[in-house]
């Protein structure tokens, strides 16, 4: 995907959409972890307990649980959905740097030099930047917001 330099104002307009995508990604990751954490030993112990309880109460057999194939299928679906969420963020010009914690960069300009506007979960707005040769640890606060982004002629 080709990225174009965007203004600080554009980055902040896209931020609520970006946050929504990260919420979806975090939800999907949590679901995937739950699927992976259900080990065969836990499953067997849970079924034995459920069957014992059901027999005591005189109920029917416990509800069937997801098979290993179903879990694997769902995990692949989750991976695909996460990939789709990341690709959608790319459409806004966001470069996903990290999911935990949620961090993104936007390609921009400062004094006609390429830089990254950066945001991480917890920041209310895109309020920091760093050079393209540096990383998140080198980010600096934005002091003159109008200086960021390509020169736009109206």
Can you describe this structure?
The chain is α+β, with helices and mostly antiparallel strands and 154 residues long. Helix content is 47%, strand content 18%. It contains three helices and five strands, in the order αααβββββ. The chain has a five-stranded antiparallel beta sheet. A hairpin with a 4-residue loop joins strand 1 and strand 2. Helix 1 runs antiparallel to helix 3.
What is the straight-line distance between the termini? 27 Å
Major sheet description: 5 strands, antiparallel
Mean pLDDT comes to 83
Radius of gyration computed on alpha carbons: 23 Å
Number of strands: 5
What global shape is seen? elongated
Number of domains: 1
Run of helices and strands:
HHHEEEEE
Strand order of the largest sheet: 1-2-3-4-5
Low-confidence parts: 52-62
Q: Tally the helices: what do you get?
A: 3
Q: Helix amount, in percent? A: 40-55%
> What is the strand content?
15-25%
Structural class: alpha+beta
Key structural traits:
154 residues; alpha+beta
Question: What does the secondary structure layout of this molecule look like, with pairings?
Answer:
Elements (H helix, E strand, L loop, with lengths): L7 H30 L2 H18 L10 H24 L2 E5 L4 E8 L2 E8 L7 E4 L8 E2 L13
Antiparallel strand pairs: 1-2, 2-3, 3-4, 4-5
Helix pairs in contact: 1-3
Write a concise synopsis of the structure shown.
This protein has helices at residues 8-37, 40-57, 68-91, and strands at residues 94-98, 103-110, 113-120, 128-131, 140-141. By secondary structure, it is of the alpha+beta class.
């Amino acid at each position: 995907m080709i990225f174009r330099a965007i203004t600080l104002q554009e980055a902040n307009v896209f931020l609520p959409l970006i946050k929504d995508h990260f919420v979806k990604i975090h939800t999907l990751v949590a679901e995937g972890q739950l699927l992976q954490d259900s080990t065969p030993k836990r499953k067997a112990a849970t079924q034995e307990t459920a069957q014992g309880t059901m027999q005591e109460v005189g109920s029917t057999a416990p509800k069937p649980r997801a098979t290993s194939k179903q879990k694997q299928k769902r995990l692949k679906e989750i991976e695909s959905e996460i990939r789709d969420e990341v690709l959608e963020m790319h459409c806004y010009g966001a470069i996903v740097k990290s999911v935990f914690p949620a961090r993104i960069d936007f390609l921009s300009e400062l004094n006609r030099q390429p830089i990254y506007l950066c945001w991480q979960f917890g920041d209310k707005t895109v309020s920091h930047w760093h050079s393209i040769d540096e990383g998140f640890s080198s980010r600096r606060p934005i002091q003159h917001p109008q200086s960021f982004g390509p020169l736009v002629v109206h």
